[in-house]
Design brief:
The chain has 122 residues and is of the alpha+beta class. The protein has a domain of 81 residues: Hypothetical Cytosolic Protein, Chain: A (2-Layer Sandwich). Helix content is 22%, strand content 17%. Bound molecules: zinc ion. Zinc ion (ZN) binds next to β5.
Amino acid sequence: MTRGPRPAGRPRHVPQRTCVACRLGKPKREMVRLVRLAEGNVAVDPTGKKSGRGAYLCSDPACWQAGLKRGVLVRALKLDHLVAADAAALEAYSRALPAPVSPSISHLPITLAGTEPAPASD
Ligand SMILES: [Zn+2]
């Protein structure tokens, strides 16, 4: 028999990473890892397993803008500058990121607007 108390839904120990742009620590899976390659290039590392100096950014386009424009990412990766092609690729990546979701509702399932009649409160 495998009956027993169900583990709580929230594991207490969640690996956290710090966004180099906003400096907030967030669960690793909510972050995007960037890795510095041997040639001085920077690539997005979706698996988080590439070797090399890495830096994390929130999956929030605002942090990507800050990271790219203010040289934050360059410093975090100890580079002199970002290769233009990489900057363009990262910028394109940031544009493809989903729209930022408020952290307080991000864990809720997406509800389709209009499926439930909203009670008129005013
Ligand atoms: Zn951030």
